[in-house]
């Protein structure tokens, strides 16, 4: 299946970029991951809007108009053999002929890359049990609202989790839980759903927005406010959400059971609402 690189569709093996690409040298670029169900991209406008916001945040102009991105994505979806896919998009500040931290001249074009892969979903037995997570200090910079490719702090946090047999690392900054290494985190206490607010210290997840919309639609009591580490540990339910994980219960935190150690009722309902919502939107197209 072809990948997209700077205006062309070509086999992955033929898609080459310069070793001087600023994505490679500095992690100077942005990305998006868009889930595709039954060959339809889910929340594509929201993902492309977040891509635009991140590009603006790093002062890089978008190499493609929204409709051009949509055409690229449609072509990748069509060419791929799977019905459910994950589309990855990346834009970097391109390759100059020398290494210098400051931006290259305007004549240097950005690098734009996109490819499709099969959507990796959570097996039903894992979902039914929930997953284990750890907490770690949030060592990231202060613009976590930007979906940039410099992900070293996230990579190290997630690897710490994996080394301890866990699925996710929850990031704690100044006593508050901001999100996971690659997911947003919600908690439930006495039937109340609590979500951390969108600030510069958290990625505004596309799934996060869907969860808030579904909570409102189904009259699920909801508060959007900071979650302290103490509150996190006392929660009845903790879930992670992302485009690929959807809604996944965290049933063990730092080796301790969350609530009764099983996925809770609010999370189970939310997962079902999410499935229903996905199916409705995908049918409408
Ligand atoms: N936070 C971080 C740090 C992430 O990397 C991600 C996405 N992988 C999310 C939250 C969830 O975002 P989305 O719902 O848009 O996938």
TrEMBL record:
One of its GO terms (molecular function) is transaminase activity. The keyword Transferase applies. InterPro entries: Aminotrans_IV, Aminotransferase-like, BCAT-like_C, BCAT-like_N, Class-IV_PLP-Dep_Aminotrnsfr. Signal peptide: none annotated. PANTHER family: AMINO-ACID AMINOTRANSFERASE, D-ALANINE AMINOTRANSFERASE. This is D-amino acid aminotransferase. Keywords: Aminotransferase, Transferase. It comes from the Bacteria. Belongs to the class-IV pyridoxal-phosphate-dependent aminotransferase family. Pfam families: Aminotran_4 (PF01063).
């Amino acid at each position: 299946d072809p990948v997209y690189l700077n205006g062309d569709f070509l086999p992955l093996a033929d898609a080459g970029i310069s070793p001087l690409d600023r994505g490679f040298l500095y992690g100077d670029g942005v990305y998006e991951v868009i889930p595709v169900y039954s060959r339809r991209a889910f929340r594509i406008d929201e993902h492309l809007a977040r891509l635009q916001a991140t590009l603006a945040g790093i002062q890089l102009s978008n190499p493609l108009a929204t409709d051009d991105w949509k055409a690229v994505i449609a072509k990748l979806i069509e060419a791929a053999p799977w019905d459910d896919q994950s589309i990855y998009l990346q834009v970097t500040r391109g390759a100059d002929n020398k290494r210098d931290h400051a931006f290259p001249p305007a004549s240097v074009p950005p690098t734009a890359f996109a490819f499709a892969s099969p959507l990796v979903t959570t097996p039903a037995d894992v979902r039914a049990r929930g997953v284990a997570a750890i907490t770690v200090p949030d060592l990231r910079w202060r613009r976590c609202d930007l979906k940039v490719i410099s992900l070293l702090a996230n990579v190290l946090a997630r690897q710490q989790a994996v080394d301890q047999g866990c699925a996710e690392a929850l990031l704690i900054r100044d006593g508050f839980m901001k999100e996971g290494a690659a997911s947003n985190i919600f908690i439930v206490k006495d039937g109340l759903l609590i979500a951390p607010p969108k600030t510069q210290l958290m990625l505004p997840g596309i799934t996060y927005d869907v969860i808030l919309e579904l909570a409102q639609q189904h009259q699920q009591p909801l508060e959007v406010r900071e979650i302290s580490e103490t509150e996190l540990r006392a929660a009845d339910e903790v879930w992670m959400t992302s485009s690929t994980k959807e809604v996944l219960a965290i049933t063990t935190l730092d080796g301790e059971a969350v609530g009764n150690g099983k996925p809770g009722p609010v999370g189970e309902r939310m997962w079902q609402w999410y499935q229903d919502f996905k199916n409705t939107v995908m049918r409408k197209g």
